[in-house]
Predict the 3D structure of the following.
Amino acid sequence: MFKKPLRSARWTALLIAPLLLVTACGDTEEKAKVPAEQIVGTWTAADGETFSFAADRTFTSAGLDSKKLADARCPGEKATGSWAFFADQGDGLYGTSEKARSGDEIGLAFDKEPQERCTMNLSVVDGGKTLCATDDPDDPCGLDVRFTRQK
């Protein structure tokens, strides 16, 4: 007597589960490959976080200890460092490359690394109009902080 509703509930769950999975996975941003020249300049986010990227692959930053970025353990005070695009290193290795002239993800190396290493990278999204803070290579905007270029 109760088998039929239970069987119906199983079928409903089997039909809905793939739709939920597609919906959950569909929220990630699409990365955009851009040349290094498009990164150069000052970028800011909503809570005062800033990056200024130079053509010589150096940067200055400030405010990276904001509430949304706290878990990434990056310096909040003014800091300096170098940046590079992630690129295929060959033999299945993927890491930052000082030679890469373009890319869709930026690695950061601080001159004075915090006590615990900063785990944040920046993904290039919105056709290069936005840099998203992330600590997850599978989620380009994983830390939910979006930087836009200042004019």
Observations:
- The CA atoms of residues 62 and 78 lie 4 Å apart.
